[in-house]
Amino acid sequence: MQTLDLHFMWEAFFIALSGAPITLLITVVALLISIPVGFFFSLIRLNGTPILDQLCRIYISFVRGTPLIIQIFLIYNVMPILLERFLRSTHSTLSVFDVNPIWYAFVVFSLYTIAILTEVFRSALKTVQKSQLEAAHSVGLSTCAAYRRIIIPQALVTALPNLCNATTNLIKNTSLCYALSLREITLRAKVAANPGYNYIEAYIDIFLVYLLICSLVEYGFKKYEKKLKAYQCLSA
Amino acid sequence: MLEVREIRKAFGNQEVLSGISFSIEKGDVAVILGPSGSGKTTLLRCLEFFEQADSGEVLFDDIDVDLRNVTKEQIKAIRQKTAFVFQNYNLFNNKTALENVLEGLVIGRKIPKKEAEAIAKEALDKVGLSDKYAYYPSQLSGGQQQRVGIARAIALSPEIIFFDEPTSALDPELIGEVLATMKKIAKEGTTMLVVTHEMSFAQDVANKIIFMDGGSIVEEGTPRQIFTEPKEERTRQFLKRMLPEYTYYI
Ligand SMILES: Nc1ncnc2c1ncn2[C@@H]1O[C@H](COP(=O)(O)OP(=O)(O)OP(=O)(O)O)[C@@H](O)[C@H]1O
Ligand SMILES: [Mg+2]
Fold it and tell me: N or C: which end of chain A has fewer CB within 10 A?
């Protein structure tokens, strides 16, 4: 049996790691977009008109009920066509081929994460009893202030484990970006493995890099959760 | 000060309040009595606008609200004059006792933090919780939580405080401390509208009793009138059930 090429593995680890900024960029952009939008959608699902609620539900089941890789291919193939039409109609000199594929990744992963977070926020908000809102109203808080100061802080505590889950899933799912030829963690390591067929070493490296990133993220969430939970733990 | 005219409220096609009218003067301690399901909670909830009444009128000092078309400003104006003490306390779970009281002062009433803190501490001291400022609701007993609830209400110096069965979620041995607190603030002249099944409070502290049944006011009067010479048979039956010793009054 062939042994592992440890020297290659060592070098390729850093090659894989050098893809981390792209992975993290996609993750952060997707989260920055989908946290507010997902929160807004969750409010629609809880308090909105039946029609809007239904639209959100269709959107969510579409995103959650289809493979992410197909969504990526779809956006990757459909967006340029739409974009080209748009560019032509505005007589722009830009060409669709100049568009960095990372923009497609932003779009796909935002659309995907919005659907996930809408459900995360919805179930978290539902755990805070309506009477908390009434109590806030009775002391003169507006609904907006009540959400900001009373309801969201409590909902966040329940949402945090799921939010952590969604984030690590998102990080792992960005490995599908190889389909967009984005030079993130997975693709970089695979390319490095090509000349010497060191695929096993490369996969182990990829594995380790994701493990490292996800562990750090989980650690951060756990710490934050502990801090937020202070008011509950004290009772024990 | 507060006058309520012909409040009506139905859930679906079940009429829960069928034209309630009464009035309350400054300094009154009014107790609403009535069997379960008679609409007492619903009445208080309509007055605090947690529930939208179908029709009726609320006159509060110079504010005149037609319940059929209430504006946001009117709701806000009425809530500025009222406070609510809940059956299940409903303290803000993510805030300490002191922060619970501060919240309405600082955010609701826009009182500067320093000043608000003095008011909040005074309110907590009054309900006997001067050693519990930094405790979260989950660290307090039911009786203590309800006293924080009362402190949260009185700190706002509202013109009237609504109490919805403030002691009925409490263990029997904790009821006394809450009733004593309520009695204390009543003696200080706080205007109160109290739904309760505590007959001792109704007899000793209230100056006005409203007896409700089936969504209507059956009879109202002073505790003396209601407890010693009720006019209505339904009132008599109710009191007989609530006060086993009631027969002695006749
Ligand atoms: N949100 C609601 N939806 C439908 N029906 C309701 C609702 N709230 C109250 N009711 C009904 O209205 C009636 C009056 O309820 P309410 O809670 O006002 O009675 P109550 O006098 O406070 O009774 P209790 O002494 O048990 O607290 C009951 O029959 C109840 O089932
Ligand atoms: Mg009730």
Answer: N
State the ligand closest to the CA atom of B36: 1
Neighbours of B63 (CB within 10 A): 14
Nearest alpha carbon to residue A159 among A129, A115, A127: A127
ipTM for the whole complex: 0.93
Cα of B90 from ligand 2 centre, angstroms: 15
Residues 6+ apart with CB under 8 A from B35: B213, B238
Rounded alpha-carbon distances, angstroms, from residue B197 to B2, B32, B178, B235: 23, 9, 14, 14
Which of A132, A137, A138, A160 should we substitute to test contact with B (largest number of B Cβ atoms within 10 Å)? A138
Exposure of A6 by Cβ count < 10 A (0-12 exposed, 13-18 middle, 19+ buried)? exposed
Tell me the CB-side half-sphere exposure of residue A2, using CA atoms within 13 A: 9
The Å distance, Cα B15 to ligand 1 centre, comes to: 10
SS3 B24: strand
Residue type, B79: R
Q: Which residue has the higher pLDDT, A109 or A234?
A: A109
B13 lines ligand 1 (CB under 6 A): no
> How does pLDDT run across B35-77, given as a tens digit for each residue?
999 999 999 999 999 999 999 999 999 999 999 999 999 999 9
Strand partners, B216: B213
Q: At what angle do helices A152-173 and A199-228 cross, to 10 degrees?
A: 180
The per-residue pLDDT for range A76-111, each reduced to its tens digit, is 888 888 888 888 888 877 777 778 889 999 999 999
In the predicted model, is pLDDT for residue A41 greater than 50? yes
Backbone angles phi, psi at B18, to 5 degrees: -115, 70
Judging contacts by C-beta atoms under 8 Å, the chain B residues touching residue A140 are: 76, 79-80, 104, 107-109, 156
CB contact under 8 A, B50 and A134: yes
Q: Does A132 touch chain B if contact means CB atoms closer than 8 Å? A: yes
Do B90 and A132 meet the contact criterion of CB atoms below 8 Å apart? Answer: yes
Domains of chain A: 21-182 (1.10.3720.10)
B93:A154 CB<8 A = yes
- Check A135 against B86: CB less than 8 A apart: yes
Q: A177 to each of A65, B117, B229, how far by Cα in Å?
A: 20, 54, 84
Q: Which residues of A19-36 are buried (b: 16+ CB within 10 A; e: fewer)?
A: bbebbbebbebbbebbbe
